[in-house]
Amino acid sequence: MTTPSIATPSLTSHLTSLTTPIPYSTATSHPFLASAASLTLPAPRLAFWLSQDRIYAAQAYPRFIAQLITKIPLDAPPSHPPPTAGTQELSTQTLKVLVDCLTNIIREVGFFDDTASNYKLEIGGTRKEDQVWVERKATRDYTAEMARHCCAGNVGGWLGVFVGYGEGAFVYLDAWSSVYTSIPITAISDSGLTTKAILDLSYNWSSANPDFAGFVKAIGDLVDAYFAPVMLGKGVAGHTSADALARAEGIWARVVELEAEFWPADGEEETMRIENRT
């Protein structure tokens, strides 16, 4: 009698099964998100948050992805399973996905600006004289963390930041999917501008949007592919499997922390307008 084989867990499934110092639910069920889902989120707070996300998307994100592209390991582990006719090696798949990231962020920044204009959300401009909101410490921390990993001049550092990027996208998808599916159906037909903005934003980053869901899956699949040898007990990028997995677990815990901190607190927008700081 043949003993059934036990499937090796992926890195993503392993990480999301862990208990982190900052609970995962803090990042996906934050009061900001709960207010969005109940359609009680004030327009200024939504505008304040959107301005912070645009800072990341318009300024930090392109530099971050460009750095990742320059560090794609040419000696990436073979695809698991090996590529067949019509498929590509892992490094080629990675380049394609990251180039798509740069293409998509142009659309995303335009989406921010269109949403702000259509729904009267005052997010300000990118030039200093056009800015409306103070940049949050959490925004600076997020971009600094990604830059720190990118500056690590080795494949191990590259894999670390790739884990952080891929798993951060997963958290974002989970958070906004919960918002989108929680919005009362009765609110859709009779809603004000802020409600319509929340509907558009939550759909855009939820699993209901096949483009974004497919993008997050593509990133997650690549992360899992790079770490497939680790999950089989093999070393990668000069690290033992235990060390590589411990590093990924630490990055995952930090990503959850950063994502949780990125959501503004109730009333925070009242003290973060630039005119209130002069």
Helix/strand layout:
Blueprint: H1 11-16, H2 24-28, H3 31-37, H4 43-70, H5 90-118, H6 137-150, H7 155-182, H8 186-189, H9 193-204, H10 210-226, H11 228-231, H12 241-262
Largest sheet: none
Radius of gyration: 20 Å
Strand-residue fraction? under 5%
* Separate helix tally: 12
The SSE string, one letter per element, is HHHHHHHHHHHH
| Mean pLDDT level | 85
Strands, count: 0
Which oligomeric form is depicted? single chain
Structural class: mainly alpha
User: pLDDT below 50 for ≥5 consecutive residues: which ranges?
Assistant: 1-5, 79-87
Percent helix range: 55-70%
What is the end-to-end distance? Answer: 77 Å
Overall shape: globular
Description of the structure:
The chain has helices at 11-16, 24-28, 31-37, 43-70, 90-118, 137-150, 155-182, 186-189, 193-204, 210-226, 228-231, 241-262. The N and C termini lie far apart (77 Å). It is an all-alpha fold. The protein is built from 12 helices and no strands. Mean pLDDT is 85; it is low at 1-5 and 79-87. It is globular and about 55 Å long.
In short:
By secondary structure, the chain is an all-alpha fold. The chain contains twelve helices and no strands.
